[in-house]
Design goal:
The complex is a heterodimer of chains A (778) and B (237). Chain A is an alpha+beta fold and 778 residues long. Helices cover 53% and strands 19% of the residues of chain A. In chain A, the strands form 2 sheets. A 6-stranded mixed barrel of chain A has the order 2-3-8-5-7-6. In chain A, strands 12-13-19-16-18-17 form a 6-stranded mixed beta barrel. With 237 residues, chain B is an alpha/beta fold. Helices cover 27% and strands 29% of the residues of chain B. Chain B is built from 6 helices and 10 strands. Chain B has a 6-stranded mixed β-sheet. Classes of the chains: A alpha+beta (778), B alpha/beta (237). The complex binds adenosine-5'-diphosphate and magnesium ion.
């Protein structure tokens, strides 16, 4: 574009500052939200993927009481197995300057699968002495390569020299034992030693890492690859007979799985909200640019008459919105990255140990940044084209005024009963339908997202009470180590008057459909309870099984249906009748009485004890059968900590929804005001007092806000449920017990905002210069 | 037959407007010739079809029938982009309502022609020719109607077009200001040998023209050659 047109562009931008600022802000905010979440999502997945690639993260992990070298050879011979390695993992201690620190010891017979990645020092070699230590632990505890550490493992004290500091993909999400609910990176650590360094009597490998044929990807697994992993699992099960053989497929490994879950919830926020904001932004662009082009009709005609080609005029006008939308989108992305994105990322970093963990820009974001100005440009182009296809002489003729009333309404008898203000407003609304729709949508999204935000807040607050006062009110929860026998658990149950529960993964099967959920088997007692959909307490059925609401919805199961379940790795399928549907805040699946479970011929193996008596935390370290002891307070604290980052995101979204609401209302309000200046001036000349005119304007605004809020609030619960369901597939909430407060807040806030914004605009009524406004046809 | 010196030639030109069901014949059987360097005045009552005729000549609108020639080119055969080029290179247009770009200053409005990619004279010189060099940095809204019209003329003549078209250039101006504008236009023909076609409903202005084309009811009623046109300065109305 050339000099003078560029000047014109800049001056037009200045002259329509409010409108362009509004477009800018909308594009900015849409991109802000998108990039804030996307940078973390993309960065997490890609960083993890790179890490897994670098270290050949195991595709399948098998565990048992003990693998022999023959087992290893057998597995290696399987056609579905590319490679396999053994490892023995056990917790011990390191004595560091008088203090004892928990250290997980990994005795290895090779470093090919789920390899340790050397950070400093010398690499591991088979049969090499010394210890390779978790680099985060080393940094935080001041351990250097070459130091000699005093260690305790399996009751034996011994010394090892630090050969190197390392990181390991199996420890991306690492809780050393049941005393931790959240990671404390570097507060405890892990270490690798050659199997030959084992200080105990004889080493029994408890874990086998398997590299599966046909699995080329690491984080981004295809369905075929998941199937290959499952196939390999079956091969191994058949090839070696072991009691207590259990498997963890790659995508179920704790690091992989919890990143995937976190990423999943941010993905929902990333997709859902920017899409709404983007739609509002596009509508804003359409209304604003259509108006600008209409206003410049004469100028456009003149430029064409003077010989400017359509293309040049088009580029000139299209560049308005393109320039604004592009700057808005880019700056929004940058701001989203550095503020909300950075803080979510910090929270993630405190949970996950991934070397080179960083935020990243995804292709989606780049495409969107390009797409926003393109959409803006195209809408703009359409508005221009309508004019430019005409002959210069036609464009130069003033547009015939739209002789449009309130449509059919005017023909009804109702019309004659309406007062002047109502008629005037209805005509105005009808004449400016697009603007009205845009305004309604602006208010709608504002009310809807406000409801959602207040709803999330209320649900998150109530889930704490629901879960820890109503469903499992026990003061202490004790979990037992895998393989603890019934008798041991029973003794604890008697000593602490506790209730025994077995909780395990279960494949639910309904027809051809199946999915991995959990089964909960409950012994007699009143510390583990159930509630029906309406929130009333209910007992588990005496026969058959109960299924949680979300699982039932997923399979379309109703009370009276028959379904199957299987408890992997066992392949036996039990068929049961569904007698009850219950609401569960987390861990969806099925639940049944111990008696029913045993009727099926299954073995009750409780792994959790709920009790109101105080259980000493020291049991975790002193007693091998006890895996964890948590108090109710600890659970609540961890729940709050985990929810904090999400709450923070929701707060951001709420603020942005309000901001967009204000921008839309103000922009469209100003547009409509400018369009009406002549009419308003006429009213003033006729003697209408300022306040009366302002009230007429406010009436239209209340009408629009009313419609927008009503639809927004009607959609609110659906959006809320959809969002909560997407964010965490295992979570459920008592929607039926929600208070009306989210409605009240969202309604009040939307109205206050809307009326305030309109008041600001209509305060300009008294500044209208009657003579000036009525004089020139611009 | 056709005059050898004719720069512009209309052959049986007709123009029909259709708006919905309504069909209106604004021009029919228009035949005329305007020579190179001539000052031609198109004279007629309001609604006669003068502006329509001028718009066809300037390529702002298309004829429904007949042919219009500019030199050897038939502009009625031009497509939209060729017409744009024709307007950009050969035609200078002065509008009745000036049509300056409101967000550009006086000199920028003239300089705008440079953005077209055509060679133009120094914009300040063009402003000097219309006597407004001192107002070069004013925006249109800060200038009077006459001054705006002179800027619009400066804009038209800056690119030294072969053909200058003016639709009621003094329509919105008082006598004295109007006379000044007419003087500038007459000089364009007399001094710079440009072809100037001016539309007016005021028969007084016919006196300064070399050729007067009388239009009535959508057709050319009479063409008069003025052997001794008056100077614009001498005009009284
Ligand atoms: N776009 C149009 N649609 C319909 N009729 C038109 C249009 N433009 C002009 N006319 C009609 O054509 C006739 C000639 O118009 P015009 O050339 O503007 O007249 P003049 O300039 O001589 O006053 C008028 O009756 C006018 O109403
Ligand atoms: Mg006219």
């Amino acid at each position: 574009m050339t000099r003078n047109l560029r000047r014109k562009l800049l001056r037009d931008l200045k002259a329509n500052f409010v409108q362009f600022l509004a477009i800018f802000i909308m594009c900015f905010l849409a991109m802000f939200v998108l990039e804030a979440f996307d940078s973390v999502v993309t960065g997490s997945c890609n960083s993890l993927d790179r890490y897994y690639i670098q270290t050949d993260f195991a595709d399948l992990e098998a565990s048992s009481e003990g693998f022999t070298t023959e087992d290893l050879l057998t597995v290696r011979m399987l056609p579905s197995v590319k490679n396999a390695e053994l490892r023995y993992t056990v917790n011990g201690k390191a004595r560091l300057g008088g203090a004892e620190k928990k250290l997980e010891f990994n005795y290895i017979d090779g470093n090919e699968i789920s390899k340790m990645l050397l950070v400093s020092g010398e690499p591991y070699e088979k049969e090499k002495s010394g210890i390779w230590i978790d680099s985060d632990f080393a940094v935080r505890q001041g351990i250097n390569v070459g130091d000699t550490l005093q260690l305790t493992c399996e009751g034996v004290d011994f010394y090892e020299t630090v050969r190197g500091t390392v990181s390991n993909p199996e420890h991306v999400y690492f809780l050393i034992d049941g005393t931790y609910i959240e990671p404390d990176i570097g507060g405890y650590g892990y270490a690798f030693l050659d199997a030959g360094e084992y200080p105990g009597e004889s080493l029994l490998f408890d874990t086998m890492y398997v590299d599966v044929y046909g699995v080329e990807h690491q984080y981004y697994l295809t369905d075929e690859e998941k199937a290959a992993i499952d196939g390999c699992r079956q091969d191994i099960t058949q090839a070696i007979s072991k009691t207590s053989l259990a498997f963890t497929a790659k995508q179920k490994q704790t690091g992989y799985d919890s990143i995937a879950v976190d990423v999943g919830s941010y993905k929902t926020l990333r997709t859902f909200f920017p899409a709404i904001f983007m739609m509002i932004a596009v509508l804003g662009i359409v209304t604003t640019m259509t108006r600008l082009v209409t206003k410049q009709r004469t100028v456009i005609g003149t430029l064409k008459a003077l010989g400017f080609s359509n293309v040049v005029v088009m580029i000139h006008y299209v560049s308005y919105s393109v320039v604004i939308a592009l700057t808005g989108a880019i700056l929004g992305a940058v701001a989203g990255w550095y503020t909300l994105g950075a803080s979510i990322f910090d929270a993630m970093k405190a949970y996950y140990c991934i070397p080179g963990y960083s935020m990243e820009v995804s292709g989606t974001v780049v495409i969107t940044i390009v797409l926003i100005p393109v959409i803006a440009g195209v809408t703009n182009y359409m508005a221009c084209r309508k004019l430019l296809v005409q002959r210069a002489s036609e464009i130069l003729r003033p547009e015939p005024p739209a002789v449009m009333g309130a449509g059919l309404l005017e023909k009804t008898p109702l019309w004659s009963k309406m007062n002047f203000a109502t008629r005037w407003n209805l005509r105005d609304v009808n004449r400016n339908r697009l603007r009205t729709i845009a305004a309604v949508l602006g208010v709608l999204q504002c009310a809807m997202l406000l409801y959602t935000a207040f709803g999330v807040n209320e649900l998150n607050k109530s889930v704490e009470n629901w879960e820890y006062s109503e469903l499992s009110p026990a003061n202490y929860t004790v979990t037992f180590s895998a393989g603890t026998d019934y008798g041991t658990v029973y003794d604890y149950a008697r000593q602490y008057s506790g209730q025994m529960v077995q909780s395990a993964p279960a494949d639910l099967i309904s027809g051809d459909d199946s999915g991995l959920y959990r089964i909960t088997v409950v012994d007699e007692g009143n510390l583990y309870r159930f509630q029906a959909e309406n929130g009333d307490y209910t007992k588990l059925p005496d026969h058959g099984v109960a299924i949680s609401k979300r699982a039932a919805d997923r399979f379309g199961i109703a009370v009276g249906d028959t379904m199957g379940f299987r408890m992997p790795p066992a392949s036996k399928v039990y068929n049961v009748k569904v007698e009850l549907i219950y609401k569960a805040p987390n861990s969806q699946g099925i639940a049944m009485k111990r008696s029913c479970f045993e009727e099926l011929g299954a073995d009750f193996r409780p792994d959790t004890l709920y009790t109101d008596m105080t259980v000493p935390f020291t049991y975790v370290n002193d007693r091998t059968e006890i895996a964890s002891v948590f108090s109710k307070e600890q659970y609540i604290r961890s729940m709050k900590a985990k929810g904090a980052s999400f709450d923070y995101s929701v707060l951001y979204i709420m603020v942005i929804a309000v901001a967009i609401g204000i921008v839309v209302m103000y922009n469209l309000g100003i547009l409509s005001f400018i369009e009406k200046v002549r009419e308003i001036a006429t009213l003033k000349v006729l003697g209408f007092p300022t306040n009366k005119i302002r009230w007429i304007l406010q009436q239209q605004n209340i009408f629009i806000t009313g419609i927008g809020t009503a639809i927004g609030l009607a959609l609110g619960p659906t959006v809320l449920e959809f969002m909560m369901a997407e964010v965490d597939v295992d979570a459920d909430y008592m929607y039926s017990r929600m208070s009306p407060m989210p409605y009240v807040y969202a309604f009040a806030l939307s109205f206050i905002l809307s009326i305030a914004v309109n008041s600001i605009i209509s305060s300009k009524v008294k500044d209208i210069d009657m003579v000036e406004a009525l004089k020139g046809v611009e | 037959m056709a005059d050898e010196r004719a720069l512009i030639r209309f052959e049986n030109v007709g123009k029909i407007y259709r708006t919905g069901q309504i069909v209106y014949e604004a021009l029919h059987d228009v035949n005329l010739e305007i020579n190179d360097g001539e000052l031609a005045v198109i004279l007629g009552p309001s609604g006669a079809g003068k502006s329509t005729l001028l718009n066809l000549l300037g390529g702002l609108d298309g004829a429904t029938s007949g042919r219009i020639f500019f030199g050897d080119d038939e502009i009625t055969a031009f497509d939209d982009s060729r017409l744009g080029k024709f307007r950009a290179v050969d035609v200078g247009i002065v509008f009745q309502f000036y049509n300056l770009v409101p967000t550009l200053t006086a000199i920028e409005n003239v300089d705008l022609m440079q953005d077209l990619g055509v060679k133009i004279m120094n914009p300040l010189e063009a402003l000097e020719m219309v006597g407004l060099a001192d107002r070069k940095d004013n925006f249109p809204s800060q200038l009077s109607g006459g001054q705006q019209q002179r800027i619009s003329i400066a804009r038209a003549i800056a690119k030294m077009p072969r053909l200058l078209l003016c639709d009621e250039p003094t329509g919105a101006l008082d006598t004295n200001t109007g006379r000044g504008v007419l003087k500038i236009l007459q000089d364009q023909s007399r001094v710079y040998k440009r072809t100037v076609v001016m539309v007016t409903h005021n028969s007084m202005f016919a006196e300064i023209a070399d050729k007067v084309i009388m239009v009535k009811n959508g057709t050319v009623e009479e063409v008069k050659i003025n052997e001794s046109p008056k100077d614009a300065d001498e005009l009284q109305w």
